[in-house]
Specification:
Blueprint (H helix, E strand, L loop, with lengths): L11 H4 L5 H13 L3 H17 L4 H12 L5 H12 L4 E6 L8 H18 L7 E4 L7 H13 L4 H9 L4 H24 L2 E4 L4 H18 L6 E6 L5 H15 L3 E6 L4 H11 L9 H17 L4 E6 L3 H13 L9 E6 L4 H9 L4 E7 L2 H17 L3 H19 L4
Parallel strand pairs: 1-2, 1-8, 2-3, 3-4, 4-5, 5-6, 6-7, 7-8
Helix pairs in contact: 2-17, 3-16, 4-16, 6-9, 7-8, 7-10, 11-13, 13-14
Length: 414
Amino acid sequence: MSTASSLSFDNTENAFAYKSDRELKKARFLFSTMKYPLLVRWATRLTPWLLRTGLPVKGIIRNTIFEQFVGGETLGETAGVAKKLSEYKVQVILDYGVEGGQKDEAAFEQSMEKFKEVIQYASTQPNIPFMSVKVTGFARYGLLEKLDSSVANAKGSLMKRYGAALESLNSDEKQEWQNVQHRMQGICLLAAEKGIGVLVDAEETWIQDPVDVMTILMMEKFNQSKPVVYNTVQLYRHNRLNFLKDSLDAAELRGFILGVKLVRGAYMEKERERAKELDYTSPIQPDKSATDQDFDRAIHFCIDHLEKIAVIIATHNENSCRYVVERMQEKNLPANHSHIHFSQLYGMSDPVTFNLAKAGYLVSKYLPFGPIRDVIPYLMRRAQENTTVTGQTSRELVLIKRELQRRRQEGGPT
């Protein structure tokens, strides 16, 4: 097993072996474009409008940003990507990339069936151990918001506050919430039967509490002997390290394995703006260093409790990944420990993903799929993210250029 000091994320030959020269040059063009925030801002506004007008832009989108960040429009189209990744010992987390907007029970039922279809498909593939679900895909946003508000206003532990919050619902809303729980249970039951992990995405703070509670209840039911359900902990929130510790207490009390995906976070600007507008204390950390500190503390905590925690470290941050490796080596843990998994988004941070895989660590790409029109919100977020994450785009671009230069000098793949 490689040591943390010898594990290099600068090895571009490993990082981009799965990409042809043509694909690398496309990536170079995209990341070069994303260096300019004004250009990205205009593109993210214009692209959805252009699609709505019916102008023939789908081909351009498919051959550029879609090809870079998405596995395909259908489950079948993801097969080629998954197969190529498997050749380099990189696994896949399937993500049906269609975002919210559904408002009726029929649409929610349809979303549930789609998630089940993803599970069925993943179970037939050798390197797809996980899929992700977004509760807002099969639950009404307003219902989650009402429940969360009632939970926040009650007293006691999260579970006690949740119990009190249920009483705030009228009879129709109680039935509606039972339907949501039934969908979630159906998804998790099928996943348990098929041996596929379910990663429950994080939501905005004002709807997160009922998602947390439902996920904990699913873990209690399905994580008795092995991790099936994973909750997402966003460490850019200043109270989530304590939430992680409380979740372990619940797991020990209720006798289940805590599944957790650690991320930094995805709604920072929206959260801060809402807190300012409604005049409450922002739930977001004061600065990036505080987020980084809590993220590393969460890593330390999880690795110290691996007998009861299965953790997915979902980050592009090289320092955090090195820290995980260091902690594993300090504890003499094997690189392929079943309770430690790394993950990065498809199309980003290949030097992290493929060098970890080469060194024997369990690592996956988060692979979204869906019709181009429906995954546009996801693609626009990726474009915006690459302009706001300090140094991320520059780092991607430098390494892509370095690999293209290496291939020119040494005669690499075409």
